[in-house]
Amino acid sequence: DQQVKQNSPSLSVQEGRISILNCDYTNSMFDYFLWYKKYPAEGPTFLISISSIKDKNEDGRFTVFLNKSAKHLSLHIVPSQPGDSAVYFCAASEGGGKLIFGQGTELSVKP
Amino acid sequence: DADVTQTPRNRITKTGKRIMLECSQTKGHDRMYWYRQDPGLGLRLIYYSFDVKDINKGEISDGYSVSRQAQAKFSLSLESAIPNQTALYFCATSDFTDQPQHFGDGTRLSIL
């Protein structure tokens, strides 16, 4: 049973607009959440994280929101740029260093 | 130079063969991980190691084994490869709990 789910396999957005990527989880023991970005032929690279004691974390154009009651995580990219086109994975941890990943969402930002 | 290096980058082999994938890191991290990525399934943890004397199974360890030869080296073996082990394999490292993991660029493994 998948504990972390990204229900949208793909998302297409116009350059300059907002991209919103969503992630749902089932395990209430998760206390740390991360987003990774992956380009073809490369490994995932860390983008942004959030602890369960917060509901928002911002880093430049990237903001992660956490809604613990809904067990929902989202990543907002504003403004979106063509270079943001990649696969985005959300991941969660309940401590101990192990990460559980979602299936990924492929974002395409069109000029 | 990459901080986390995986070799080989690509490998095609036949069913029943023994295969070793290697990972080395220059980040000085104690923790190392092996994942596989399959289309539509994201990354799944195979094995992880928190130091040289520590080896732990992940969620999909059957058919795999690992060896932590040194702090900087963590290898993954498929003793007798089967076609459903065809996947993209990633090695990752981290410093300690709640620090982001850093990934290598992956090994694309095809088993015919």
- Termini of chain A, distance in Å? 38 Å
The proportion of residues forming helix of chain B, as a percent range, comes to: under 10%
What kind of assembly state do the chains in view correspond to?
A: heterodimer
Poorly predicted residue ranges of chain A: none
Structure in a nutshell:
The complex is a heterodimer of chains A (111) and B (112). With 111 residues, chain A is mainly β.
Write a concise keyword list for the protein shown above:
heterodimer; A: 111 residues; mainly beta; six-stranded mixed sheet; five-stranded antiparallel sheet; 0% helix; 54% strand; B: 112 residues; seven-stranded mixed sheet; four-stranded antiparallel sheet; 11 strands; globular
Describe the protein in words.
The complex is a heterodimer of chains A (111) and B (112). Chain A is mainly β and 111 residues long. Chain A has no helices and eleven strands. In chain A, strands 2, 4, 5, 9, 10 and 11 form a six-stranded mixed β-sheet that branches. Chain A has a five-stranded antiparallel β-sheet with strand order 1-3-8-7-6, with no helix packed on it. In chain A, β4 and β5 form a beta hairpin. Chain A starts with a strand and ends with a strand. Chain B is an all-beta fold. The radius of gyration of chain B is 13 Å and the shape is globular. At the A-B interface, β4, β5, β9 and β10 of A face β5, β9 and β10 of B.
List the helices and strands and how they pair.
The complex is a heterodimer of chains A (111) and B (112).
Chain A: E1 4-5, E2 10-14, E3 19-25, E4 32-38, E5 45-51, E6 56-59, E7 62-67, E8 72-77, E9 86-93, E10 100-101, E11 105-110
Parallel strand pairs in A: 2-11
Antiparallel strand pairs in A: 1-3, 3-8, 4-5, 4-9, 6-7, 7-8, 9-10, 9-11
Chain B: E1 4-7, E2 10-13, E3 19-25, E4 31-38, E5 42-51, E6 54-57, E7 65-70, E8 73-78, E9 87-94, E10 102-103, E11 107-111
